Amino acid sequence: MRGPVRVPAVVRSGVVLTALLLPLLATAEDGALAAKRWLDQMASAVSNLTYRGTLVYLRRDQVDSLRIYHRVDAAGMRERLVALNGTPREILRDNNSVRCIFPDRRSVLIDTRIAERLFPVIPADLFDLSEGRYQLTLDGADRVAQLEAQVVRISAADNFRFGYRLWLEKNTGMLLKSSLINREGQAIEQVLFTDIEIGAVISDQELQPDIPSDDYVEVALPDLQTSTPTDSEPNWRVGQLPAGFQPLAQRRAGSLSHLTFSDGLAVVSVYVEPAGDGQAGLRGYSRVGAMNILSKNRGGFAVTAVGEVPRSTLEMMVGSVAQQAGFGPARAEIP
């Protein structure tokens, strides 16, 4: 009769380590799936819920407070934002049409494109397509505006993008607070409700502006048309992009070219136009809240990149802009 088989210690150690790690890996995977379900619920809540509340927007040493009225019905989405501090202003949104009323300038800015968002829009398939550049986890529970919230963390896997912490109301998935974070987990910018009434009945009157603007000057933003450049027009290309960023569109308005790139979550705009003497003060790096801006002169053209991404991302993109045929990037490897 054969005696017991002796298993080498290194093999036994590997088996034990695998047995210990498997439950942890399964738990992490289950946590990511649970977090994704929360984000799916958030997307539905933001698109379909009606609410009124007070928002606070924190960036560096600036604090802005806004009253928001948000209604969704058969006609679509209507929204009114009223500034509660600083210069008086109101923003009216009717689906994708936006009117910004500035009484100090006696003007109304009209934008028929999708407005800049206060809260991030998380694509449902982001984590299926991001190839590990974002990691998704549950990050405990908290309270915001006297409501119980589940916290979801979106962590960036490299130094070319930021992450988020999101506080979602436990019953509806409504986004109550958003914090843009760097790789160290430090908050760069925060938006949160201090009070909110989910499911409120919003009247037509609440969506009407308090500021009379009939005699104000209306200023419409230029309509950037998707371009098909000819031989006589420069076709701009960003030759080097951080891994995961893809070109979305190239548009033109006169001599201004606008290129847009995204990794599915972060969006960067690159503007190219002939350099003029009046643009000398625009060169260099600046920051407005979480929005980084980098402008340089390249071959007689002013190149400006804007986005809620680290400066290293803008440096890479601005430094590789050139007039070339086609509109496709040469990807940079993640360091």
Task: Characterise this structure.
The protein has 335 residues and is an alpha+beta fold. It is built from three helices and 23 strands. The strands form four sheets. It has a twelve-stranded mixed β-sheet with strand order 7-8-9-10-11-1-2-3-4-5-6-12, with helices on one face. A hairpin with a 2-residue loop joins strand 20 and strand 21 (301-307).
The unreliable regions are 10-26, 228-232, 326-335
Principal-axis shape: globular
Q: What is the strand tally?
A: 23
Radius of gyration from the alpha-carbon trace, in angstroms? 24 Å
The residue fraction in helices comes out at: 10-25%
- Classified by CATH, the class of the largest domain is Mainly Beta
CATH superfamily of the largest domain: Lipoprotein localisation LolA/LolB/LppX
Largest sheet: 12 strands, mixed
CATH architecture of the largest domain: Clam
Number of domains: 2
Mean pLDDT: 81
Judged by helices, strands and strand pairing, the structural class is alpha+beta
CATH topology of the largest domain: outer membrane lipoprotein receptor (LolB), chain A
* End-to-end separation: 58 Å
Order of helices and strands: HEEEEEEHEEEEEEEEEEEEEEEHEE
- Indicate the proportion of strand residues: over 45%
* Total of helices: 3
Strand order of the largest sheet: 7-8-9-10-11-1-2-3-4-5-6-12
